[in-house]
Amino acid sequence: MKKQAILFWIIIGLAAFGVVNSLFGNGQMNWSRLLIPVVLLAIVVWLYKFPPRKYRARHPKVKPSARTMAKLAAEQRQSSGQKRKHYPFQVIEGNKGKNDEDMPKYH
């Protein structure tokens, strides 16, 4: 678990303990003290389920053109048929020759 998640759950647990302790600490339940946290919790849940319009994710529906779809289809056909890209480079062997003693024993 990440440190932030552990810290978050510790704070939530302490907050819950504080709410329960403040409500039942005197031996009697005080309903007026419970009203504000319940209203705040209800507002947070309401805003989470139904966010304002300016905070909602907007995904415009754009239909790609026929030209774009043709390009995508051509790229898919080309990439599926050719698995490896060929580069115009090649290794040129040197004139010195190879010496087995200089080669490392372990690679």
Account of the protein in words:
The chain has 107 residues and is mostly helical. 53% of the residues lie in helices and 0% in strands. It is built from three helices and no strands. The longest helix has 22 residues, at 3-24. The protein is elongated. The two termini are 38 Å apart. The mean pLDDT is 77. Keywords: Membrane, Transmembrane, Transmembrane helix.
The quaternary organization reads as single chain
Number of helices: 3
How would you describe the shape?
Answer: elongated
Whole-number average pLDDT? 77
- Supply Rg: 33 Å
Instruction: Report how far apart the termini are.
Output: 38 Å
Return residue spans where pLDDT drops below 50 for at least 5 consecutive residues. none
> Helices and strands: which structural class?
mainly alpha
Region (Disordered): 59-107
InterPro entries: SA1362/YqhP-like (IPR048110)
Protein name: DUF2207 domain-containing protein
Keywords: Membrane, Transmembrane, Transmembrane helix
List the helices and strands and how they pair.
Elements: H1 3-24, H2 31-49, H3 66-81
Fill in the keyword field for this structure.
3 helices; transmembrane helix; mainly alpha; single chain; transmembrane; membrane; elongated; 107 residues; DUF2207 domain-containing protein; 0% strand
Brief summary:
By secondary structure, this protein is an all-alpha fold. Helices cover 53% and strands 0% of the residues.
